[in-house]
Design a protein that fits this description.
The N and C termini lie close together (8 Å). A hairpin with a 2-residue loop joins strand 3 and strand 4. By secondary structure, the chain is an alpha/beta fold. The longest helix has 23 residues. The protein is built from nine helices and seven strands.
Length: 209
Amino acid sequence: MRVVTISATYGTAGNVIGPAVAEMLGVPFVDRAIPGTVAEELGCTLEEALVHDDRAEHGIGRLLSGAMRLPTVTFGGVDTYLPGAMPTPPEEFVAHTEKVIRTTAQARGGVILGRAGAIVLADHPGALHVRLDAPLERRIRQTAAFFDLGEREARKIVEDNDRARAAYVRHFYRTDPGRSTLYHLVVDSTSIPVPACVELIASAAEAIG
C-alpha cells in the first residue's frame, strides 16, 4: 500500500497533483474525508471540525496567523485555553486528525495533502514525503491565471494561505513546514508541468515503497 504525504504552498497545484498521484498509484486521496471523520469521532459538527483544519478555507491556521486569536490566558508562563470559550480544545482536533491519518495510512494507504502529514507519518515505513514549492512571484502569477484574478488580489490569497498553513505546523509541531529535511522530494510545480510532477511523485513512491 503506497503512502504519500504532500505539503504544498499555495499556488503549486497541490489540490490537482494530489488526486492525480492517488489515481496513478491506485490509492485513496485522503483530504475531505479527514474533517468529516474527526467530527464524527468528537461528536461535533463538520463546520466546527473545519474551523480546526489547516486545509479548510477558514481553518485554524487563520486563527493562529492573526485573523483571530484563540481564547487563552497565561498562567505561570503557560498558555491555557479559557474554559467554556471553546468547547473542544484545538489540540483535540489535531490529535484526532493525526489518528485518522495514521489509521488510513496503515489500513489502505493513500495520498495525504497538508495537515503536517510528513511529520505525523515520519516513521511510517515506505511513506514518501513530498513538498511542492516555488518562488513567491511564480506562485502568485499561477494563482492569478488559474482564478482569473489581478496580481494584488492573488498576492493576498497566496500570502494569507502561506501564513496560515505555516502557523498551523509551527504552533502544533514546533517546526517550519518549509524545512527540506522533512521531505524526500521537493518539487517546483510552477516550472515542471503538472503531469510531469505527477509522474515523478508516483515513480518515487513506487521506488521507495
